[in-house]
Design goal:
By secondary structure, the protein is α+β, with helices and mostly antiparallel strands. Helices cover 45% and strands 19% of the residues. The longest helix has 22 residues.
C-alpha cells in the first residue's frame, strides 16, 4: 500500500513539475528547489526527477546550430544543403540588426531526431563556401541576451 501511495504522489508531483517546466520561464535555481522539495516529499532520489524532466531538453533534439557559415549563404541555400540529409522544417540565419548582413551562424530544425543526428554526422566539418561548417545540437537559450550582466554586456556605462 505504501508503494502505491508513493507512486501516486510521485505521479502528481512529477506532472506538476512538468507543467511548471513547460509553461513558466523559471531559472534553474527554482527548478533545483522544486526538485529537491518534490524528492523530499516523495522520498525518491532527486536525480530521478532531473533525468525524467531534462532528458528530452538536453539529449533529444531536432534543432541544430550551424556555425561558421559563409556570409553570402541564404536560408534557401542552407535548406537545400540540409534537405539532402532529411526533411527540413525550418531555417533561420541570424542577421545583424545594424548592418543587415549575416552573423555567420543560424539554426535548422530537422524533421526527426534521426535526421538531426544524420545531419551532424554528415555535414559537420564539411566545407561550404570556403569555410568549414560547424553542425551541432542547439542548446537552449539560458537567461537574457547579455548573460545577466545588467544590460551592458559586461562593459562599463558610457
Amino acid at each position: 500500500m505504501e508503494q502505491i501511495i508513493r507512486f501516486v504522489i510521485f505521479s502528481v508531483v512529477f506532472s506538476l513539475l512538468c507543467l511548471f517546466y513547460t509553461f513558466h520561464d523559471f531559472s534553474h535555481y527554482y527548478y533545483d528547489v522544486l526538485i529537491v522539495l518534490f524528492s523530499w516529499l516523495t522520498g525518491l532520489d532527486y536525480r530521478l526527477f532531473y533525468e525524467l524532466l531534462f532528458f528530452e531538453r538536453f539529449f533529444v533534439s531536432k534543432k541544430l546550430y550551424i556555425g561558421n557559415l559563409p556570409y553570402s549563404i541564404t536560408e534557401e541555400g542552407l535548406k537545400e544543403t540540409f534537405s539532402e540529409v532529411g526533411p527540413v522544417e525550418s531555417v533561420k540565419i541570424i542577421i545583424d540588426a545594424f548592418s543587415g548582413s549575416s552573423k555567420g551562424f543560424g539554426f535548422i530544425e530537422m524533421g526527426t531526431e534521426e535526421d538531426a543526428a544524420s545531419a551532424i554526422e554528415g555535414l559537420h566539418g564539411k566545407e561550404m563556401g570556403g569555410r568549414t561548417v560547424v553542425v551541432s545540437l542547439a542548446r537552449s537559450k539560458e537567461g537574457g541576451r547579455d548573460g545577466g550582466t545588467g544590460g551592458s554586456g559586461g562593459r562599463g556605462r558610457y
